[in-house]
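During the second half of the funding period, the structural biology subgroup turned its attention to how the target accommodates small molecules. The most pressing case was nicotinamide-adenine-dinucleotide, which had performed well in the primary screen but for which no bound structure existed. We therefore specified the complex as follows and requested a full 3D prediction, including the ligand pose.
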Amino acid sequence: MHAFVHTALPVRVLFGEGTRASLGAEIERLGCRRALVLTTPGQRAAAEAQAVSESLGSLAAGIFAGAAMHTPVEVTERALEVLRGRAADCVVALGGGSTIGLGKALALRTGVAQIAVPTTYAGSEMTPVLGQTENGVKTTQRTLDVLPETVIYDVDLTLALPVRVSVVSGMNAIAHAVEALYARDGNPLTSLMAEESIRALAGALPRIASDPGDKAARSDALYGAWLAGACLGTVGMALHHKLCHVLGGSFDLPHAETHTVILPHAVAYNAAAAPDAMARVARAVGVEDAARGLHDLSGRLGAVRSLRDLGMPGAAIDRAADLAVKDPYWNPAPIRRDAVRALIARAWAGDPPRAVVSPGDEPAPPP
Ligand code: NAD
């Protein structure tokens, strides 16, 4: 056994069916009295149902249903006014990564307690990371100040997630787990969580695609998403996440879909440099080859597999490669512009993944 460091994050997690009934008790447990419920415009009805529910009742201070992708600062400022106007002392973020990001942004500015109730598989609820957008520029910070105090996973709230969104959100979660398996600061616990996460999600997503109301499959996927989020919150990410941040931030490509397209290609890029991680990914997906297996999985699930189909112009490939190799994250295989460009070009065209770094190359030195 290698030496390692593991930092456990202080989050209380409730998991199950109907767990939202504990919301009121969890708010009181935090010593809070007035909760502002956050969500997106599309999930307002679900938030309203929660706000008037028996569990929340007199603890509900109101609803702010304006959360948006990439946590725009102007949205946070509007929510801040509502939070202050209603004298709320905590937030309940009911939704996906966009809503949870808003809760984090409010906690950063005011110190309010957060209860996250995730309804996608993105994993933000388990991380001390916040990305915010101002004047079109996204900046990311890592601080325990944004980590939710409590996370309530309620399988029932994921049943309405459309299949198309479920699939890409699940692949987004798998990407967190895959990169945790070859993270420089990975450890035996995160690797156990990561492999189990991939196994749960790869098994659940095809069942959800054929029957979105399959509660057992939904439960497995949410369990996998929790584990993936815990990995993302604990260890550093590599080339895959760097590419997705560049593509999302600079070319306005959709978050989870971009992760879905890039993942098999990033795995192929790192395959030779991280053989143990690849063996674990392949075992978890139930295939011989990790990259090919992930590519086939997203094909079977009907997910988009090319950046072109996400709206990226071919002329942008070179600029994307330039940005991706600038300030790179640590990565097991060396970051070479020609190889990264080839990866992006294959992902743009929707070609099957192929290793583009020779196996003899040395891993990149730590920064
Ligand atoms: P999202 O939160 O934007 O949700 C996508 C859409 O699905 C929204 O319109 C939402 O209203 C809808 N939706 C969500 N759950 C639903 C449900 N159960 N039923 C019906 N509709 C539902 O998307 P996301 O992929 O969850 O989050 C993406 C955002 O989260 C990005 O901004 C990304 O950067 C951020 N993120 C941050 C972290 C982190 O650690 N900081 C981690 C992952 C993602």
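Two results from this model are relevant to the next phase. The longest strand covers residues 90-95. Confidence is low (pLDDT under 50) at residues 359-363.
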